[in-house]
Q: What sequence folds into this?
């Protein structure tokens, strides 16, 4: 994983570890839009898993990737192990989009992707709570960002995703 100071506007330089092992390099999805969302199992916004899965089902055949990134940074609302997170997501929301291992998303110890986002957008662009959404365009550049209260299926989000699908 490159350092957060990497001189690149391209998210494809970053990789996450998968919740079940293996790597989830963003470069594997070059040419496709990717919605990266920091998630938590015990948050008031947790029902957004249902919306994320709906987006995944609706758009994945047209190229969209949804990547859930569990984090315990806000209110300690993701205390579980990888197995507990997987079971919770599958049992309660039938999630089958990719999930990364639990990481930090804010501060100096944040995953490099999130440090890059903060550098690109300024500190105000860093996640402020669970279920903050970042849309990565097919070219690897940030194409959109939405705070927790904006649902993944909101027209503001889908209006940014749909034109990128045509480019994928």
A:
């Amino acid at each position: 994983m490159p350092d957060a100071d990497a001189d690149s506007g391209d998210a494809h330089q970053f990789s996450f570890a998968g919740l079940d092992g293996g790597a989830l390099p963003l470069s594997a999805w070059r040419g496709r839009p990717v919605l990266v969302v920091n998630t938590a199992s015990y948050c008031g916004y947790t029902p957004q898993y249902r919306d994320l899965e709906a987006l995944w089902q609706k758009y994945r055949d047209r190229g969209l990737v949804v990547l859930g990134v569990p984090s315990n940074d806000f209110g300690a609302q993701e205390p579980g192990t990888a197995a507990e997170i997987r079971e919770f997501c599958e049992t309660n929301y039938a999630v089958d989009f990719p999930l990364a291992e639990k990481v930090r998303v804010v501060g100096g110890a944040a995953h490099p992707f999130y440090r890059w986002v903060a550098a690109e957008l300024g500190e105000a662009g860093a996640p402020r709570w669970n279920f903050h959404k970042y849309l990565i365009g097919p070219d690897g550049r940030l194409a959109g960002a939405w705070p927790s209260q904006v649902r993944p299926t909101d027209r503001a989000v889908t209006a940014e995703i749909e034109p990128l699908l045509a480019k994928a």
Observations:
- Confidence is low (pLDDT under 50) at residues 1-7.
- The chain has one domain: 31-167.
- The longest helix spans residues 155-167.
